[in-house]
Amino acid sequence: MIKKERLYTLDLIRAIAVILILITHYNANFIGFNGPVQLDKVVLTAFPFNIYIGDLGVGLFLLISGASMYYVYANQKLNLANFSKKRLLNILPMFYIAYALAFLYYFWMNKGFSHDGISLKWGLSTIFGFDSLMQTAGFPSFMLVGEWFLGMIMMVYLVFPLLKVCFEKQTGLTLLISSIIFLVVQSVQYPENKIWTLVQLTIGLIPVFVFGMFLQKYAKALNNIVSIGLSVFVLIVVSFGKFGDVPSKIMMAIVSVAVFVILTNVAKYLEQKSIKRCVTWLVKYAYPIFLIHHFVINQVVKHFDLLMVGKLDSYILFVLCLSIIFPISVLVYRLERMILNVK
Protein backbone atom coordinates (compact mmCIF):
# COMPACT_ATOMS: atom_id res chain seq x y z
CA MET A 1 0.00 0.00 0.00
CA ILE A 2 1.25 3.47 -0.88
CA LYS A 3 1.82 5.58 2.23
CA LYS A 4 0.28 9.03 1.80
CA GLU A 5 1.22 12.20 3.63
CA ARG A 6 -1.22 13.54 6.19
CA LEU A 7 -3.70 16.21 5.12
CA TYR A 8 -3.70 19.19 7.45
CA THR A 9 -7.34 19.87 6.57
CA LEU A 10 -8.43 16.50 7.93
CA ASP A 11 -6.21 16.85 10.99
CA LEU A 12 -7.70 20.27 11.77
CA ILE A 13 -11.26 18.91 11.64
CA ARG A 14 -10.26 15.93 13.79
CA ALA A 15 -8.72 18.24 16.39
CA ILE A 16 -11.86 20.39 16.47
CA ALA A 17 -13.97 17.25 16.90
CA VAL A 18 -11.81 16.23 19.87
CA ILE A 19 -12.38 19.63 21.49
CA LEU A 20 -16.13 19.37 20.89
CA ILE A 21 -16.29 15.93 22.53
CA LEU A 22 -14.35 17.19 25.57
CA ILE A 23 -16.74 20.12 25.94
CA THR A 24 -19.75 17.83 25.41
CA HIS A 25 -19.06 15.53 28.31
CA TYR A 26 -18.11 18.34 30.63
CA ASN A 27 -21.23 20.32 29.76
CA ALA A 28 -23.36 17.22 30.34
CA ASN A 29 -23.13 18.12 34.02
CA PHE A 30 -25.06 21.33 33.39
CA ILE A 31 -27.69 20.42 30.78
CA GLY A 32 -29.72 17.83 32.65
CA PHE A 33 -27.80 14.62 32.00
CA ASN A 34 -25.86 14.49 35.27
CA GLY A 35 -27.80 16.97 37.38
CA PRO A 36 -30.12 19.96 37.13
CA VAL A 37 -30.10 22.23 34.09
CA GLN A 38 -27.73 25.20 34.56
CA LEU A 39 -27.11 26.48 31.03
CA ASP A 40 -25.35 29.59 32.30
CA LYS A 41 -22.46 27.39 33.48
CA VAL A 42 -21.72 25.50 30.26
CA VAL A 43 -18.40 26.00 28.48
CA LEU A 44 -18.96 27.97 25.25
CA THR A 45 -22.29 26.41 24.23
CA ALA A 46 -24.32 23.22 24.54
CA PHE A 47 -26.34 23.65 21.35
CA PRO A 48 -24.38 25.14 18.40
CA PHE A 49 -26.45 25.68 15.27
CA ASN A 50 -29.54 24.46 17.08
CA ILE A 51 -28.23 20.91 17.62
CA TYR A 52 -26.61 19.16 20.58
CA ILE A 53 -22.87 19.83 20.65
CA GLY A 54 -22.22 16.11 21.11
CA ASP A 55 -24.02 15.38 17.85
CA LEU A 56 -21.79 17.88 16.04
CA GLY A 57 -18.69 16.21 17.49
CA VAL A 58 -19.89 12.73 16.49
CA GLY A 59 -20.97 13.95 13.05
CA LEU A 60 -17.54 15.44 12.37
CA PHE A 61 -15.83 12.27 13.64
CA LEU A 62 -17.91 10.14 11.27
CA LEU A 63 -17.25 12.42 8.32
CA ILE A 64 -13.53 12.65 9.05
CA SER A 65 -13.34 8.87 9.45
CA GLY A 66 -14.94 8.35 6.04
CA ALA A 67 -12.84 11.06 4.43
CA SER A 68 -9.54 9.84 5.86
CA MET A 69 -10.23 6.17 5.08
CA TYR A 70 -11.09 7.05 1.49
CA TYR A 71 -8.01 9.27 1.19
CA VAL A 72 -5.73 6.48 2.42
CA TYR A 73 -7.25 3.56 0.51
CA ALA A 74 -8.79 5.12 -2.62
CA ASN A 75 -8.02 3.20 -5.82
CA GLN A 76 -5.79 0.74 -3.98
CA LYS A 77 -6.25 -2.98 -3.67
CA LEU A 78 -7.24 -3.81 -0.11
CA ASN A 79 -5.82 -6.88 1.60
CA LEU A 80 -8.68 -7.82 3.90
CA ALA A 81 -6.53 -9.71 6.44
CA ASN A 82 -3.93 -6.95 6.71
CA PHE A 83 -6.60 -4.25 6.84
CA SER A 84 -8.52 -5.98 9.65
CA LYS A 85 -5.35 -6.67 11.63
CA LYS A 86 -4.19 -3.06 11.35
CA ARG A 87 -7.57 -1.65 12.40
CA LEU A 88 -7.88 -3.97 15.40
CA LEU A 89 -4.32 -3.19 16.53
CA ASN A 90 -5.08 0.52 16.22
CA ILE A 91 -8.12 0.20 18.48
CA LEU A 92 -8.14 -2.67 20.97
CA PRO A 93 -4.70 -2.61 22.71
CA MET A 94 -5.05 1.01 23.82
CA PHE A 95 -8.67 0.36 24.81
CA TYR A 96 -7.53 -2.53 27.04
CA ILE A 97 -4.82 -0.38 28.65
CA ALA A 98 -7.22 2.48 29.38
CA TYR A 99 -9.82 0.05 30.69
CA ALA A 100 -7.28 -1.68 32.96
CA LEU A 101 -6.20 1.64 34.47
CA ALA A 102 -9.81 2.71 35.06
CA PHE A 103 -10.67 -0.71 36.53
CA LEU A 104 -7.74 -0.61 38.94
CA TYR A 105 -8.74 2.91 40.02
CA TYR A 106 -12.30 1.77 40.71
CA PHE A 107 -11.04 -1.35 42.48
CA TRP A 108 -8.91 0.80 44.76
CA MET A 109 -11.61 3.41 45.41
CA ASN A 110 -14.36 0.82 46.05
CA LYS A 111 -12.07 -1.59 47.93
CA GLY A 112 -12.98 -4.44 45.63
CA PHE A 113 -14.84 -5.44 42.49
CA SER A 114 -18.62 -5.43 42.26
CA HIS A 115 -20.60 -6.19 39.14
CA ASP A 116 -23.87 -4.93 40.67
CA GLY A 117 -25.80 -8.02 39.65
CA ILE A 118 -24.83 -7.72 35.98
CA SER A 119 -24.18 -11.12 34.42
CA LEU A 120 -20.52 -11.60 33.59
CA LYS A 121 -21.57 -12.69 30.08
CA TRP A 122 -21.95 -8.99 29.26
CA GLY A 123 -18.19 -8.73 29.72
CA LEU A 124 -17.92 -10.08 26.17
CA SER A 125 -18.95 -6.66 24.89
CA THR A 126 -15.98 -5.15 26.75
CA ILE A 127 -13.57 -7.71 25.28
CA PHE A 128 -14.61 -6.62 21.80
CA GLY A 129 -14.83 -2.89 22.62
CA PHE A 130 -18.61 -2.69 22.26
CA ASP A 131 -19.58 -2.13 25.90
CA SER A 132 -20.32 1.59 25.66
CA LEU A 133 -22.35 1.07 22.49
CA MET A 134 -24.38 -1.64 24.22
CA GLN A 135 -24.91 0.52 27.31
CA THR A 136 -26.06 3.48 25.21
CA ALA A 137 -28.61 1.22 23.52
CA GLY A 138 -29.90 0.19 26.96
CA PHE A 139 -28.18 -3.16 27.50
CA PRO A 140 -26.21 -4.05 30.66
CA SER A 141 -22.44 -3.60 30.37
CA PHE A 142 -19.20 -3.13 32.26
CA MET A 143 -18.41 0.10 30.46
CA LEU A 144 -15.71 2.24 32.07
CA VAL A 145 -13.90 4.02 29.24
CA GLY A 146 -14.56 4.99 25.64
CA GLU A 147 -17.84 6.01 24.03
CA TRP A 148 -20.54 4.30 21.99
CA PHE A 149 -18.86 5.67 18.87
CA LEU A 150 -16.00 3.19 19.37
CA GLY A 151 -18.21 0.15 18.80
CA MET A 152 -19.92 1.87 15.90
CA ILE A 153 -16.67 2.74 14.10
CA MET A 154 -15.43 -0.84 14.54
CA MET A 155 -18.54 -2.02 12.71
CA VAL A 156 -17.82 0.52 9.97
CA TYR A 157 -14.33 -0.91 9.58
CA LEU A 158 -15.84 -4.39 9.14
CA VAL A 159 -17.90 -3.26 6.16
CA PHE A 160 -15.43 -0.72 4.75
CA PRO A 161 -13.92 -3.11 2.15
CA LEU A 162 -17.42 -3.66 0.70
CA LEU A 163 -18.27 0.05 0.97
CA LYS A 164 -15.05 0.94 -0.84
CA VAL A 165 -15.80 -1.38 -3.77
CA CYS A 166 -19.38 -0.11 -4.11
CA PHE A 167 -18.34 3.53 -3.75
CA GLU A 168 -15.56 3.32 -6.35
CA LYS A 169 -17.69 1.45 -8.89
CA GLN A 170 -21.00 3.26 -8.36
CA THR A 171 -20.42 6.45 -6.36
CA GLY A 172 -23.78 8.05 -7.11
CA LEU A 173 -25.80 4.90 -6.49
CA THR A 174 -23.93 4.15 -3.25
CA LEU A 175 -24.54 7.69 -2.03
CA LEU A 176 -28.24 7.48 -2.97
CA ILE A 177 -28.80 4.14 -1.23
CA SER A 178 -26.86 5.32 1.82
CA SER A 179 -28.98 8.49 2.02
CA ILE A 180 -32.22 6.49 1.80
CA ILE A 181 -31.09 4.06 4.51
CA PHE A 182 -30.05 6.98 6.71
CA LEU A 183 -33.32 8.87 6.34
CA VAL A 184 -35.51 5.79 6.86
CA VAL A 185 -33.64 4.35 9.84
CA GLN A 186 -33.29 7.69 11.63
CA SER A 187 -36.90 8.71 10.93
CA VAL A 188 -38.48 5.59 12.43
CA GLN A 189 -38.46 6.03 16.20
CA TYR A 190 -38.85 3.20 18.74
CA PRO A 191 -37.10 4.72 21.78
CA GLU A 192 -38.01 1.81 24.08
CA ASN A 193 -36.72 -0.84 21.67
CA LYS A 194 -33.07 -1.57 22.49
CA ILE A 195 -32.39 -3.49 19.30
CA TRP A 196 -33.74 -0.66 17.14
CA THR A 197 -31.67 1.87 19.08
CA LEU A 198 -28.63 -0.31 18.36
CA VAL A 199 -29.55 -0.35 14.66
CA GLN A 200 -29.87 3.45 14.62
CA LEU A 201 -26.45 3.85 16.26
CA THR A 202 -24.74 1.47 13.82
CA ILE A 203 -26.38 0.73 10.47
CA GLY A 204 -28.24 4.02 10.70
CA LEU A 205 -25.01 6.04 10.93
CA ILE A 206 -22.79 4.19 8.45
CA PRO A 207 -24.23 6.44 5.70
CA VAL A 208 -22.66 9.49 7.39
CA PHE A 209 -19.31 7.72 7.02
CA VAL A 210 -20.12 7.35 3.29
CA PHE A 211 -20.91 11.08 3.15
CA GLY A 212 -17.37 11.67 4.42
CA MET A 213 -15.97 9.51 1.62
CA PHE A 214 -17.95 11.57 -0.87
CA LEU A 215 -16.73 14.87 0.57
CA GLN A 216 -13.13 13.71 0.30
CA LYS A 217 -13.52 12.40 -3.25
CA TYR A 218 -14.89 15.75 -4.39
CA ALA A 219 -12.85 17.91 -2.01
CA LYS A 220 -11.35 20.00 -4.84
CA ALA A 221 -14.75 20.61 -6.42
CA LEU A 222 -16.10 21.82 -3.06
CA ASN A 223 -13.16 24.16 -2.47
CA ASN A 224 -14.80 27.40 -3.59
CA ILE A 225 -16.75 30.41 -2.39
CA VAL A 226 -20.07 28.94 -3.56
CA SER A 227 -19.68 25.90 -1.30
CA ILE A 228 -18.83 28.17 1.63
CA GLY A 229 -21.81 30.40 0.92
CA LEU A 230 -24.25 27.50 0.68
CA SER A 231 -22.87 25.95 3.88
CA VAL A 232 -23.13 29.23 5.78
CA PHE A 233 -26.69 29.63 4.50
CA VAL A 234 -27.57 26.14 5.77
CA LEU A 235 -26.12 26.93 9.20
CA ILE A 236 -28.07 30.20 9.40
CA VAL A 237 -31.32 28.46 8.46
CA VAL A 238 -30.93 25.65 10.99
CA SER A 239 -29.79 28.08 13.69
CA PHE A 240 -32.87 30.28 13.47
CA GLY A 241 -35.46 27.91 12.04
CA LYS A 242 -37.75 25.53 13.90
CA PHE A 243 -36.86 21.92 13.21
CA GLY A 244 -38.06 20.21 16.36
CA ASP A 245 -39.86 17.51 14.38
CA VAL A 246 -36.76 16.54 12.41
CA PRO A 247 -34.88 13.58 13.99
CA SER A 248 -31.74 14.74 15.79
CA LYS A 249 -29.34 12.55 13.81
CA ILE A 250 -30.65 13.94 10.51
CA MET A 251 -30.04 17.46 11.79
CA MET A 252 -26.63 16.26 12.96
CA ALA A 253 -25.71 15.16 9.44
CA ILE A 254 -26.92 18.40 7.82
CA VAL A 255 -25.03 20.65 10.24
CA SER A 256 -21.90 18.47 10.31
CA VAL A 257 -21.60 18.40 6.51
CA ALA A 258 -21.97 22.20 6.36
CA VAL A 259 -19.35 22.72 9.08
CA PHE A 260 -17.04 20.18 7.41
CA VAL A 261 -17.23 21.97 4.05
CA ILE A 262 -16.52 25.35 5.65
CA LEU A 263 -13.54 23.99 7.59
CA THR A 264 -12.03 22.34 4.50
CA ASN A 265 -12.18 25.70 2.77
CA VAL A 266 -10.72 27.81 5.58
CA ALA A 267 -8.10 25.33 6.83
CA LYS A 268 -5.41 26.93 4.64
CA TYR A 269 -5.85 30.16 6.59
CA LEU A 270 -5.25 28.36 9.89
CA GLU A 271 -1.76 27.02 9.27
CA GLN A 272 0.12 29.28 11.67
CA LYS A 273 2.84 27.43 13.62
CA SER A 274 1.10 27.75 16.97
CA ILE A 275 -2.19 26.38 15.60
CA LYS A 276 -0.40 23.59 13.74
CA ARG A 277 1.40 22.54 16.91
CA CYS A 278 -1.87 22.32 18.83
CA VAL A 279 -3.57 20.43 16.00
CA THR A 280 -0.67 17.98 15.67
CA TRP A 281 -0.65 17.31 19.42
CA LEU A 282 -4.42 16.83 19.65
CA VAL A 283 -4.48 14.50 16.66
CA LYS A 284 -1.58 12.43 18.00
CA TYR A 285 -3.35 11.83 21.31
CA ALA A 286 -6.92 11.98 20.02
CA TYR A 287 -7.68 8.31 20.61
CA PRO A 288 -6.46 8.06 24.24
CA ILE A 289 -8.21 11.38 24.96
CA PHE A 290 -11.36 9.91 23.47
CA LEU A 291 -11.01 6.79 25.62
CA ILE A 292 -10.41 8.30 29.05
CA HIS A 293 -11.87 11.81 29.05
CA HIS A 294 -15.40 10.86 30.12
CA PHE A 295 -14.16 8.71 32.99
CA VAL A 296 -11.80 11.43 34.23
CA ILE A 297 -14.40 14.17 33.99
CA ASN A 298 -16.88 12.12 36.03
CA GLN A 299 -14.29 11.40 38.71
CA VAL A 300 -13.19 15.04 39.00
CA VAL A 301 -16.61 16.69 38.86
CA LYS A 302 -18.16 14.50 41.55
CA HIS A 303 -15.92 16.20 44.13
CA PHE A 304 -17.68 19.54 43.55
CA ASP A 305 -21.11 20.86 44.43
CA LEU A 306 -22.14 22.00 40.95
CA LEU A 307 -25.06 24.01 42.34
CA MET A 308 -22.53 26.22 44.14
CA VAL A 309 -20.12 26.51 41.21
CA GLY A 310 -20.21 29.85 39.39
CA LYS A 311 -19.63 30.52 35.69
CA LEU A 312 -15.95 31.38 36.14
CA ASP A 313 -15.56 28.42 38.49
CA SER A 314 -17.03 26.18 35.79
CA TYR A 315 -14.38 27.23 33.29
CA ILE A 316 -11.65 26.69 35.88
CA LEU A 317 -13.08 23.24 36.64
CA PHE A 318 -13.03 22.42 32.93
CA VAL A 319 -9.36 23.44 32.70
CA LEU A 320 -8.67 21.28 35.77
CA CYS A 321 -10.27 18.31 33.98
CA LEU A 322 -8.12 18.95 30.90
CA SER A 323 -4.98 19.19 33.04
CA ILE A 324 -5.65 15.63 34.21
CA ILE A 325 -6.99 14.20 30.94
CA PHE A 326 -4.04 15.27 28.80
CA PRO A 327 -1.16 13.75 30.82
CA ILE A 328 -3.09 10.52 31.39
CA SER A 329 -3.73 10.34 27.65
CA VAL A 330 0.00 10.70 26.99
CA LEU A 331 0.65 7.95 29.55
CA VAL A 332 -1.84 5.57 27.91
CA TYR A 333 -0.36 6.32 24.49
CA ARG A 334 3.20 5.64 25.65
CA LEU A 335 2.22 2.48 27.53
CA GLU A 336 0.67 1.11 24.37
CA ARG A 337 3.77 1.94 22.33
CA MET A 338 5.99 0.32 24.96
CA ILE A 339 3.87 -2.85 25.23
CA LEU A 340 3.59 -3.26 21.46
CA ASN A 341 7.22 -2.22 20.99
CA VAL A 342 6.21 0.54 18.59
CA LYS A 343 8.45 3.59 18.20
How many helices does DSSP assign? 14
Query: How many individual β-strands?
Result: 0
Helix-strand string: HHHHHHHHHHHHHH
Measured between the Cα atoms of the first and last residue, the distance is 20 Å
Q: Main beta sheet, described?
A: none
Radius of gyration: 20 Å
Low-confidence stretches: none
Would you tell me the structural class of the helices and strands? mainly alpha
Anisotropy-based shape: globular
**Mean pLDDT across all residues, rounded?**
91
In percent terms, what proportion of residues is strand? under 5%
Assembly annotation: single chain
Kindly state the percentage of residues in helix: 55-70%
Task: Walk me through this protein's architecture.
With 343 residues, this protein is an all-alpha fold. The chain has helices at 8-27, 53-73, 80-109, 123-127, 131-137, 148-169, 171-187, 194-201, 206-217, 225-240, 248-266, 273-284, 286-301, 311-340. α1 crosses α12. It is globular and about 55 Å long. The mean pLDDT is 91.
Task: Please give a quick description of this structure.
Helix content is 69%, strand content 0%.
Key words describing this protein structure:
343 residues; 14 helices; 69% helix
